[in-house]
Records
---
Amino acid sequence: MKIMKMKKGLFIVLLISSAIYGQEETIGLQSIKSVDPSENYIEAELISQKVKEVLVNSRNYKVLDRESLGIVLTEQEIQKQITSINAKVVEQGRIAGAKNVIGGKLTNVEYKKALSLLKKSKLEGQSLQRAIFSFSIDIIDAETSQTLETKTFKVGTLNTKSLGGLTEQEAFLNALNPLTKDLEKFLNKFVAKPIAILSIEEEKGGAAKKVLINTGETNGAKKNDKISIYELSMVNIGDKQTQREKWVADIKIDATEGEELSTAVVVKGGEELLDKFNSKAKLICKSK
């Protein structure tokens, strides 16, 4: 199945099978590349670990990165061998069925004096440093290596949430950590992942009336989002196969229930949807 960009006009991969709920998607994670690897390899590795933390904590992904491949190196060695490491991540990601690979680039890092610590403190007289940096995160199609989405994060401007740190590494981490929520929103919005109809919440006269799906606020879902569901099947054309999409039903989200759940009313095609759900058919959902 080809990867679909999750944005306006996005495609949400929807596999109608309660057995799928809870399964983790495999996703490749490349090491972040520093434009100046001789100077900023530690900062690049800190960003890599932050992205990995976000993916793992989401509980949606099984992360395939250099560590899971048994490549254990120092930050400096990672930057020296980053091209071959990232190529191996993509290769293994394809084998493991990963739809997406996450990559990125650290483009700029500098440190400036922030302020002196208050008098009568244990560290009186020492100055804090403030990290100023920018980096990009890319969503890459594992099959074609095409960049599907990219976003640049700029940190350390006047509206920073961090006052800095005593060391450069502490200052960098203190500036990076407040970005956790922004990284979560970006990654969860644009990384295509299978979701499931967990249950038929209401049915009447042999037709589904309301369903529960495992997508919510974290994925950008909101009330009145309209979704069309199609059944997927393979059709032989000569000596090759092509994928057919046959319309099944239209649904509309009527309420989000937190970060991962929403209920949707069936607007049209309730009988067909109930039948396909019970027979565990493979379907795809396209937002309208």
---
Amino acid sequence: MRHLNRWIYAIVCVVVMLFAGLCYAWSVMAKSISATYPEWTEAQLSLTFTLVIGCISVSAIVVGILNKRVSPRVFIIISASFLLAGFLIAASVGSSPFLLYLGFGVIGGLGSGFAYATVMGLMSAWFPDRQGLISGILLMAFAFGAFIVGKVFAAVAPPGDEMWRMMFRLFGIVICVLFVICSFFFVKPDADFAPPVSKRKKQVREPASEIPIGQMAKKPVFWMYYIWAVLLASAGLILLSQGSGIALQVGSQITPGTVATVVGLISVLNGAGRVVFGAIFDKKGFRMTLTLSMIIFFIACLCLVLALKSGTFAFVVLGFSIGGFAYGAVTPTNSAFVSDFYGRKNYAMNFSLINTTMLVASFASTIAGRLYDVSGSYLNCIFLMIGVITAGAVVSAGIRRPK
């Protein structure tokens, strides 16, 4: 069967990831919703984001299990339907946050996860020679979606304005239509597909092993990496979910538009970090990638502690930028790790297991929200970030590539 150039499929997948990643704009959206319902606590609102991240992991498992039997086109159409339904339900929330949890958290999270896992699995098949780079590009788009949506949302539906309901409905309709159109480009490569080989490019490095999920799950190294990914993802999700609150605690007079821009830096730099760390993984391997990400994360935490202690907003901007960049290492490394350590034949199913790290890490945002409710300061949230990154540094010492 004759296919289009693989980069055309990649461009379509980038478009899908831009809109699938809007759930990461939650901290900006939450401020508008909390202004409508001031009686809801930070922990109650943070639970929505926890559900989103958890359901993304659940739907990734479903995609992994059914990958060989269900067309990627079908999964994208399912994603479109779920996101439409989720946003329409969330827009109808009343005095209880239940419909917000159900619509945005569960149904929207599942829809986002179907798109995320389908795109990652499909592009892994099309780009076996550039696993880290293509993962970084796609995940950059996933992160940039949050920045774009956050800016639009803050401009149209600032806190105190119930226009957020209309925006939810609009997002659902636009995404549904766009995903259905893009679904026609979701095709798998032929079984004998091989990437073009450049004279200047070295041959594709063979995976360390080629094993299914059952054998992979028996490897201690896999679980060492799994724990590392949970810990670093937890730090990133704390930053994402509490970003608006941290910015407002330091700069209480800052306008909603400025807050959205500054919080959006987390997503923008997160996107850039995904490309950079994906390329580092391809060229320098996993050890350099893990070590650099943790060092940079520590620097980000130091900046945020200084911001909260001194009230200097410039440190918030710096901390968000550096922290977002460091967090960018986690997701492309997950993808490249599975492919490099355990092979490409079983990638979809193996990736679904590593993706559950986000399910575990998602509770960090709720814990951080609870810490703020108890203390009234986001400083404890930053200390929690420092703690999980330190634990990650200890765990990473035990990760070794199979020989």
---
Amino acid sequence: MPSYTHGGDIYGLAGPVLDFSANQNPLGMPPAVVEAARRAVEEAGRYPDSLCRDLRRAIGARDGVPPEWVCCGNGAADVLFRLVLALGPRRALVTAPTFSEYESAVTAAGGTVLRHPLEAERAFDVERSILEAIDGRVDLVFLCNPNNPTGRAIPGEVLEEILLLCREQEICLVVDECFLRLCDGGGEGLAPRLREFPNLFLLRAFTKSHAIPGLRLGYGLTADPDLPGALYRAGQPWSVSNVAQAAGIAACACPEWPERAMEVIRPERRRLTQTLRARGARVWESAANYLLFQLPGVTGLKERLLRRGVLIRSCANYPGLGPDFYRIAVRLPEENDRLLAALREEWN
């Protein structure tokens, strides 16, 4: 059996837990999304629209792009794997640490991955040094903004240089903006730049911003006229259920939901950061709804907290990190209180 390498793996546990390993909107699903999904179940007796026409129109209107630029899939990971299969890259550049599925998708498609290490001493920031790695050796570059698991956003001036260099080198640049709407200053992201950079592909999802990971709904944005069709042909046609499509349309109609969550996340993120640091943890400043921290020499914390009904993400399997690195989501105040209480009991 394959091993599970992400957060949110609650199914193999002995009992219920408070899950800090999955980074999603702490407010949960918007009521309108729940109701839309419930109504759509009644339509499950027929095939969903394989072209996601209504959903693409709703996403396009929300994100300010033509609907033909929108590519929908069964979560962002599905879109990612379709993209890599359609492009067939020889070599791809990823940062380390970052989301593991970029490397998994490239490897599955027969490509090779080059890693650009991010340094803890430099806050795991993507800096201008990455430009030296963007050359004839690679035909695909992945960036996560803000990065997972560090929560660090790419400085605007560095991102601009990467955009220009990739266009000049005719390299496809994939920017994962799945946490954009749960990030300080997220705004429109790079969507307004798509026409200017047809080699740019944006990866987005409703999973985090509207807390619907179980419905599986992600999408990509591209101004390349040939790429949406290539992605469609790279997988089975009915990848997005009618329930997920209805939920996505409803989510587009409540764009304020992520910002309401940020009103909770910002002060709670600050409180968690300060409390962890006061206990001696090394915590990296995050712009997102999660925190990366290190307890030098303290391993096995995930397993110890599980005995108290709290699940956190061990970052031992991230290239560039180690067994004393952990990631936690920022949840509601009373839930964060429970996490901190469990930490006090187990962190000695």
